[in-house]
């Protein structure tokens, strides 16, 4: 018995070591208001943060957690889709928003709010927040005006942002005739508007002309050292793909012609600590550890006849657009800002703060309490997004947050907007290829349920098994069917056998027994792994470990035969008591992933909803507890 007590104490100690923030905000990547929720959205942007939100509620209590998201309404994407549909932008977005929300509900997303950047309950709050950020950034010297050339449609008399201009991709290896003005969504090439070939207006089909316009640019270079210090502190906690991308962007770098390579090699040991590599254009790139080292390194190179260029292009981004459909700029900035609005990217970075206020108001709480979630160092903000958006959510958002403080040279303190934790997700392929309607591998969330006949929990389970946090991954329908066969077979057996045996041989009551030592040891291991993996949102390998834990039920039935009264009664009692212990732990651990199925199991075990709590892990269902009837848990595989 001593070993059992020690294992129990180990489990209690493991639970106490779990990091528990005071409050938690979880944000799901916002979906453009231009079409339905599809499988890629679900796999990368919606289901992973829902799993995390449900886990955080189990960890620190639902009253301390908010899961917020909404449609990304502003910008050319929605405008262009509405134009093609022959509807007003407002009418089109409202229809799309309703459709998206209904789909998310069908997949059991536990959102506290699904709003939208242009929606009436959000827009006034969002406008005030955005303009407040802009004023503070301007006051701190992080905004400057620049004149640039943009495409202009003389036929309709308006500038054409990003997606309102299409033409031939300038990449000679690409044949896309409908590339956008700044990037090609076929080959991924990014370029300046002037490089686009054979441009035409998506509004009037006229040939646009380049015209000068004034825009506000964000100077992230002024806070790059603050960002660097913050990012370096995340090396052990962020996913490698996220960390490596942003740290290698923010570390100060220069480039010079490779004709200076012999001289550089002579000087290399005299320069401050740095890394070097060959770069495009017959150049050598040198990356220093901080700005002071950069300054000293450049000085030494210049003294030895090596001129270099500062690689700070990443740090200067336009944050305004010539479009009225968006967040207007502060009126006091003068008449030249007329007809301009905040660029959709900073717009979408600020939006979750507004969504938080809407969520609080919907709950009958004071919207001002949003500061308890966003401005308290003891709270945490977890943001899930596409890997290709990491730049915006780390560097641009970080610059907005830090740059709007009283002292932009320091990391945030209590009362400042706190910097967030980022979980990136790579793109999803379906049956080995990029999703495409023409290839027949494009599926909306509703199609998977209505036409394919799958359940929401089958989809939820499988997409969290994919390696999207690490690399582009494939939704293979044959593998999906195989996984469904496992859920309907061995997993269902593990859930059903103890309940059936309980009713057949023990009068529907949990028997009087003691936990088997092997079960307690394995439980301590899986709980420790569960808490560690869930904190880091590392779902795939965790689920395989949980599946192995579930197999303990079947092994106990094989070894001790609790369903067969010809075998020793004490052993059968202990085995079935231990099986219900495993079931309760399984139910809690799997709840964030397959909430509908685990709620059915909760009902069968005759337990209250409050049982979905981390602190309930490792605590047995009492002897003589009345057990309900088994149900259909995971459906039969199609």
Keywords:
single chain; 638 residues; alpha/beta; 6-stranded parallel β-sheet; 4-stranded antiparallel β-sheet; 19 helices; 22 strands; 16% strand
What are the SSEs and their pairings?
Layout: H1 2-17, E1 24-28, E2 31-32, H2 39-60, E3 65-72, H3 76-85, H4 89-106, E4 113-116, H5 123-139, E5 143-153, E6 158-159, E7 165-168, E8 179-180, E9 197-201, E10 209-219, H6 224-232, H7 240-250, E11 253-257, H8 261-267, E12 274-279, E13 283-288, H9 291-303, E14 309-310, E15 316-318, E16 320-321, E17 341-342, H10 344-362, H11 370-374, E18 380-386, H12 390-403, E19 421-425, E20 428-430, E21 433-434, H13 445-450, H14 456-465, E22 473-475, H15 477-505, H16 517-535, H17 539-560, H18 569-590, H19 595-604
Parallel strand pairs: 1-3, 1-18, 2-3, 3-4, 18-19, 20-22
Antiparallel strand pairs: 5-6, 5-10, 7-8, 7-9, 10-15, 11-13, 11-14, 12-13, 16-17, 20-21
